[in-house]
Write a structure and sequence with these properties.
Strand order of the largest sheet: 2-1-3
Strand content: 5-15%
Shape: globular
Number of strands: 3
Radius of gyration: 14 Å
Structural class: alpha+beta
Largest sheet: 3 strands, antiparallel
Number of helices: 3
Number of domains: 1
Length: about 90
């Protein structure tokens, strides 16, 4: 139960912090993917795609499995396109 309690505590903290994360701060990442820190208090990294984001997190010594990845829509409601995603 200790592991489950710890997980639930972290989840509650993340959700509470993410709910009050400033919208104007998120606006800086419009059209990109962001990785929130495990506690939801900051953006740990941002990139044009989730794959690039995971690479950036690993390169900076962070565990992508502990971060919450979220797409931030741009003005057109879409996310950035990369050459990887081109058809």
């Amino acid at each position: 139960m200790l592991v489950e309690d710890s997980y639930l505590e972290r989840l509650r903290a993340f959700l509470a912090n993410r709910a009050v994360f400033p919208a104007e701060e998120l606006g800086k990442y419009a059209g990109k993917w962001v990785a929130f820190s495990p506690d939801g208090t900051r953006v740990a990294a941002s990139a044009a795609s989730p794959d690039l984001l995971e690479d950036l997190l690993r390169a900076s010594g962070q565990d992508p499995a502990l971060c919450v990845i979220e797409g931030i829509p741009g003005e057109d409601g879409l996310f950035a396109q990369t050459d990887e995603g081109a058809a």
